[in-house]
């Protein structure tokens, strides 16, 4: 995804139950709309917005989230 893009979460960490549980607790679960706000200078972490909540997630975690672009 690129900066300032919006997407819909389809799946999150299907093969990693512990990580999936953490992502779900943060609000990253199927059906949620996410906006990518910015990338750190080295590309890691990535800042995203879910509703009014701002989160920073590692690239490693982001790779485990399947999304569909909304734009």
Automatic annotation (TrEMBL):
Q: Which residue stretches, if any, does this entry annotate as coiled coil?
A: none
Q: Name one GO molecular function term.
A: transition metal ion binding
Write the record's keywords in alphabetical order, separated by commas: Iron
- The source's superkingdom equals Bacteria
Keyword Phosphoprotein included in the entry's annotation: no
| Domain Ferrous iron transporter FeoA-like intervals | 1-69
Pfam families, per the entry:
FeoA
Please state what the protein is called.
Ferrous iron transport protein A
Originating species? SAR86 cluster bacterium
Lineage start: Bacteria, Pseudomonadati, Pseudomonadota, Gammaproteobacteria, SAR86 cluster
